[in-house]
Amino acid sequence: MIAWADIYKVVAAMAPLYFALALGYGSVRWWRFFSPEQCAAINTMVIYFSMPFFTFDFVVRTDPFSMNYRVIATDAVSKVITILAMAAWARCCAKAGAYSWSITGFSLAALNNTLVVGVPLLNAMYGKWAQDLIVQIAVVQSIVWFPLLLMAFELRKAWVVGVGGGATSTTDDIVLDGGDGGRARRVGPGLSSPPEKDGYGDGDGDVEINMDGVIASAAGSGLRFWPTARTVGLKLARNPNVYASVLGVVWACIAYRWHLSLPGIVTGSLQVMSKTGTGMSMFSMGLFMAQQERVIACGAGLTALGMALRFVAGPVATLLGAAALGLRGDVLHLAIIQAALPQSIASFVFAKEYGLHANVLSTAVIFGTLISLPILIAYYAVLAIV
């Protein structure tokens, strides 16, 4: 059974996150240090500088030749199950914004905080081997699943921008569902669209469009798949988070194959930036919270849905993947518990940057991290019995 000293280690690892979040919140809500434009600039700095260095730093320190590929495959199968479930729901649901919500649903169910919470918790529960496995899962999440999430964001952005502009000249209006609890605003042919950032949403609100209507409009406006795919590919190629993951894997393969190491001056330069990744992400979340009317920005219903996806749907999908690949014993228990870890901080950062349900993701990170410890201990106790 996990000891109280081990629980303290987990709490001690999580407490600094809330210190950074409180500083961000207070700097806007109480001290008025930053304007909304400056808050957006800080989030952009996090996504294009802090997060790429953070990703590269821990990817290059993971041996790609000693990975447990059955556990990695189980995690991959569980995420594919989640993607298929979200896609099926979006296709069957006639509600506007269903495809956008499927992206958010995948983030909530599949992307977790493997490093800050997972490493100390699983090390306390199962030992060093569990810590090594959770780091491997974190690396794959960074080099595979986050780039795929970015691709989904960019595809959605390309559809909304590419079709929305042309559609407004041929249709009466397009309903854009903002992140304001469902109160839609209409953009007619004679009206200007909501403020844009990089040709898209304003970064603080959400811009949703009925994708069934978008696809129909695409046929009429001549928007083709390959030009859109090319645009998305170029955007991803210029995204530092993508090539930080790729370069990290390439160097890790070289370094562990031929036993090389980076010079100290390079390592130090990387780490001085990578150490800002987690702290600045939480600081940015505090800035976002301070600009909302309520701390729990998305309301009780969406909060409950987010918690169900994070702590129930994720572990169930992992259990299905583990059954398919034959995981047993403590390795199976580890796979299930890591699927119930709290929400990934990076998922909020990306949602904020692309203007998609950032209020839901911020609530999932904040509230989910607070309630995660007793839930994870309960999972540990139940799995020890069965």
Description:
- There is one protein chain.
- The protein is 74% helix and 2% strand.
- The chain is an all-alpha fold.
- The protein has a single domain, classed as Na+/H+ antiporter like fold, CATH 1.20.1530.
- A two-stranded antiparallel sheet has the order 1-2.
- The longest helix is centred in the middle third of the chain and has 40 residues.
- The protein is globular, with a radius of gyration of 21 Å.
The largest sheet is:
2 strands, antiparallel
Order of helices and strands: HHHHHHEEHHHHHHHHH
Strand line-up in the sheet with most strands? 1-2
Mean residue pLDDT: 81
CATH topology: Na+/H+ antiporter like fold
- Which consecutive residue ranges, at least 5 long each, have pLDDT under 50? 165-183, 185-205
What shape does the CA trace take? Answer: globular
Number of domains: 1
How many helical elements? 15
Head-to-tail CA distance between termini: 14 Å
CATH class group: Mainly Alpha
- Please give the share of residues in helix: over 70%
